[in-house]
UniProtKB/TrEMBL annotation:
InterPro entries in the cross-refs: Argonaute_N (IPR032474)
Record domain Protein argonaute N-terminal: where: 57-211
Protein name: Protein argonaute N-terminal domain-containing protein
Organism annotation: Stylosanthes scabra
Skewed-composition ranges (Pro residues): 15-25
Domain of life, source organism: Eukaryota
Region (Disordered): 1-46, 146-173
Amino acid sequence: MDLFGSNGNDHEDSLPPPPPVPPDVVPAKAEQELPPEPPKKTRVPIARRGLGSKGQKLTLMTNHFKVNVNNTEEEFYQYSVALSYEDGRPVEGKGAGRKVIDKVKETYDSELNGKDLAYDGEKTLFTVGSLARNKLEFTVVLEDVTPSRNNGNCSPDGHGSPNENDRKRMRRPYRAKTFKVEISYANKIPMKAITNAIRGQETENYQEAIR
């Protein structure tokens, strides 16, 4: 004798049928409740939970400085900087960049609308407010002189008079180099992003504001 029925589901077949639904009742579909979204965490650039209370006190000098933003409605404009020589070769050295941009500021201040330029020495430049155009091209000339190892006032043998090599360096004329500068618009960063970053609030322009 088969104790579980012919199909092995005697337990399911023994359950009573569901009660009939009255004709005036409309079945309601149960809505699945989604779990609440976790609250957005506030990122603090430097989280300090209090001053130290143990160990030896010492004086620490840092390069941190306080930043206050009075006008949060202004915007930073980021520009890409491309430096090249007169023959089109790109400027590889890092030392010349700041001198070239300083010369651009000195020579073309009116074309730059009198804007102050914050330059990182390589390929990025920032201004408060936009420049006159999205792409600007300038040409500047820098004069340079090759430094003498002995400053042109003594010889390696220590007798106090310039030797032949020093005299040649002293007679060497200034060398002028021509640089081409291209400044192109790259991005716009609201000043408010800096205020939010100081408060520890992460926004869309968080990384650019910190930079």
